[in-house]
Design a protein that fits this description.
3 helices, 61% helix
Length: 87
């Protein structure tokens, strides 16, 4: 039995907050810059996997050309760092 209707107070769904593209851009560039300037992996493998998964999602909020450039640059830097980091 679904009890969700018991909590319906007739209020409309709130509008989702607009995405602040400048905020997203600033943080995506900071993550990419960290990878670009690193000589060895700056994150644990778990953190690197997290950024590998979330950065492309964040790039969807940027203009397509900019987002694709940042995604490919980050992927290349991550591959370089993984190759340079001893096991």
């Amino acid at each position: 039995m679904n009890q969700l209707p018991l909590f319906d107070f007739g209020m409309p769904e709130p509008e989702p907050a607009p995405v602040d593209v400048e905020y997203v851009r600033k943080h995506v560039k900071a993550i990419e810059r960290t990878a670009r300037h690193a000589r060895f992996m700056p994150w644990t493998e778990l953190e690197a996997a997290k950024w590998e998964r979330f950065l492309p999602d964040l790039c969807h909020y940027l203009p397509p050309e900019e987002g694709e450039a940042l995604k490919s640059s980050f992927a290349a830097e991550l591959a370089r760092l993984r190759a340079a980091t001893p096991d």
